Amino acid sequence: MSAASVEQPYYDDEPFSLTALADEIMERHPGYRVEIIGGHLLVTPSPDAPHARSLTKLMRPFIAAGLDDDETEVLQSVAIKLPTGDEDYCIPDLVVVDADIDDHFIDNNAYDPVCFRLVLEVTSSNWRDDLKTKVAAYAEAKVPVYLVVDRKHRRLHVLTDPTGSEYKSHRPYAPGETVTLPDTIGAKVTLDVDEILKAGQPKAN
After folding, report:
1. CB atoms < 10 A from the CB of 71, how many?
2. Most buried among 104, 143, 144, 175, by the most CB within 10 A?
3. Distance from CA of residue 23 to its chain's centroid?
4. In this predicted model, what pLDDT tens digit does every residue of 20-74 receive, in sequence order?
5. Quick one: CA dihedral 131, 146, 98, 181, positive or negative?
6. Distance of CA 15 to CAs 35, 85, 133, Å?
């Protein structure tokens, strides 16, 4: 993960909020994703094509299961407000949320975690954040299911049963396996690990 350093702006001798600093970074570096977790800024470069391709591949089974109709929606890059700090929020790559999410807007384009049934991250160069920092953040937000497509280590991680700052159940899946997600997301969804991981790799010439 790389990000250019940005001097913190000042106004009337008082520092701007982290939210204002995050907005400035995104303005100076279009395409970068900036999140605030535990009072720290996480800055992620623009995703590559395989990252986007794996998200497209992942959306299909969720939509086919009917999760983008009626009671739920399948969305990309929707911010979730975190309980870890006044300004804290994450922007998961993909989410399954209650259809009334618009009623749960809080601030800074972030929504109450109560309407999130599943959050999903596809790792980039910041894979450590997805496998550690965000695990604690999403658990504290009580998101029922956290799914990580770990492109670096070629694993798909399913985390469930959030308790405090951790998930009681954490099961990694390898290529050749299939994953059936908990029914709590609203429908039965089965994922082919090999298919998803292949989509996240550059295509061979």
Report:
1. 12
2. 143
3. 19
4. 888 888 888 888 888 999 888 888 888 899 999 999 999 999 999 999 989 999 9
5. positive
6. 18, 17, 26
Instruction: Give Cα 65 to chain centroid, integer Å.
Output: 21
Contact between 182 and 160 under an 8 Å Cβ cutoff? The reply is yes
- In 3D space, the residue among 173, 172, 170, 176 whose CA is nearest the CA of residue 194 turns out to be 176
Residue 116: which of 133, 140, 132 has the closest Cα? 140
Contacts for 205 with CB less than 8 Å, ≥ 6 apart: none
pTM of the full structure: 0.88
Angstrom distance (rounded) from CA 167 to CA 139: 6
Which tens digit of pLDDT belongs to each residue from 73-107? 999 999 999 999 899 999 999 999 999 999 999 99
